[in-house]
């Protein structure tokens, strides 16, 4: 893949490295995987710029917390923030827990959308809307939901998405999606339990 371009293989590698034998989610590869997913969102054009900009800000915040607080895993971050008490957590709009929750919801949307792309349905606007309605829509106001629904109508074809994956012909992209989705799903499940 060209420098700065989305590569599904890089996302797969990052999410493969995320989970330890103790089922902890390591922050460094988690954020690396997110940086790859952000490149995917950015490759979709201006239609998704509001989502990608929001994800960039959240990844940057978690990265700064990882470095400044020396967090190694999502679990260590959550435990340390919860130890300060619920009032302290609610008082910080830039908390790692709150930021993680929002990225977690977006990860579910991307997971469902990528699963839909893998399934072979050529109607990407329907796949994206279904994934959005099953994940993020419940957390957005009406105006954002309507704007998102309109944005989905401008999505490129399934073949264009598979080309964006930068892993070869469509069949290979579908195969790599088949490898990546379980790792993304595993990270999502562990985080959901957390």
Residue windows where pLDDT falls under 50 for at least 5 positions: none
Question: Can you name the CATH architecture?
Answer: Orthogonal Bundle
Identify the overall geometry. Answer: globular
Q: β content, as a range?
A: under 5%
Kindly report the name of the CATH homologous superfamily.
Glycolipid transfer protein
CATH class (first level) name: Mainly Alpha
Total count of helical runs of at least 4 residues: 10
Number of strands: 0
Mean pLDDT score: 91
How many domains in all? 1
How many angstroms does the end-to-end distance come to?
A: 34 Å
Main sheet: strands, sense, barrel: none
- What is the helix/strand order? HHHHHHHHHH
Rg over C-alpha atoms, rounded to the nearest angstrom = 17 Å
User: What name does CATH use for the topology?
Assistant: Glycolipid transfer protein, GLTP
How would you summarize this macromolecular structure in one to three sentences?
It is a peripheral membrane protein. By secondary structure, the protein is mainly alpha-helical. The protein has helices at 8-18, 27-43, 49-69, 74-83, 86-91, 96-119, 124-133, 142-152, 158-164, 170-193.
How would you characterize this protein structure?
The chain has 194 residues and is mostly helical. It has a single domain, classed as Glycolipid transfer protein (Glycolipid transfer protein, GLTP), CATH 1.10.3520.10. The protein has 10 helices and no strands. The longest helix is centred in the middle third of the chain and has 24 residues. The N and C termini lie far apart (34 Å). The mean pLDDT is 91.
